[in-house]
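Q: Hi! First time doing this. I have a protein sequence and I read that you can turn it into a structure. Is that right? Here it is:
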Amino acid sequence: MIICPTPFLARGPVYRGPVRYIAMARGYISANNPVVTDLDYRVSQNGLKWYKKPLKGDINAHLRSDQSGAFFPEGSIVAFSALWVYGRIWDDGDNSRAVVFKLSGGEFNRVVTPIDGVKGATGIRYFSAAAVEAGNLVLICNNGERAISTDGASFTGYSAIAFTGKANAIAVGTGVVAVGGDAGQLFTGASASGAFTSRTSQFGTTPITQLVAGNVLLAAGGGKLSTAPLNNGTAWTARTDPVGGSNDWAAYGNARWLISGIDKLITSVDAATWANVTARPNVGKRLSAGFWDTDHWLVCMLTGELGISADGLNWEVLTNAGLPAKNYRIFAKLP
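A: Yes, that's right. Below is the predicted 3D structure, encoded as structure tokens:
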């Protein structure tokens, strides 16, 4: 691994170097009215050393609900050669709207969708997950509605998939789209804009919190796992989680699966048989974000520590990377 030289820092706290990675943490200062969020934004040139940077663009106005609504991020995705950050803006403690921001030219600017919700009268609405299907960006709202963009400039809204609870996750396979949510509900369809059919997930009433497409389709949540062929979401097979507990993050890269939670990291090459990673970087800690970065895994703990691994089994931990102890929901490399 090559660690790049420390980028140039201007006189004062403002980072002036190249930006190739971003991290964004979420938290509440106040969950009442007004809602005020603790939104921490960090950037990096090499993914190993991070610096605080002021937010620019429309997103900067969404820091508290007595202004234009406090932004609370859920995740990010790369589409149309840009990074998109999605989640909610709180109008007050009882109402939030779904929102997505596009990062371009160093600014996060909002792109309005038809299903964002009505200010102050929506109830709790937010974009919970996103995927790319045939080049199109697909956003799933917690109520099961879909917003799809074919050009990166505008979105078309689609009616809700019939979830009785929240829709939490989406994955796109080969000719199949899977969406999972509360109470083990799982739906699949031939396209994100078409009709969806309920499937048996093998989860019972346990929520599905993660859906990932790799060499198979994988559903995870609450210590339960289930898989289906990448090109057929009709029948799902229960798999054994050797650790149990929370499943906060799941990813596939370099022909390997990783799933993490609190003091947990399990791995598999086929998503059928799983093993505990004994040399995990998050011993006694929570790991909630990460990705495969061409030649190594890069993961982030809520303590602000970074884990680095070439094979997903042997890890190096960086304890002074410039990330404070926060709930990092966005941890991504720019396109």
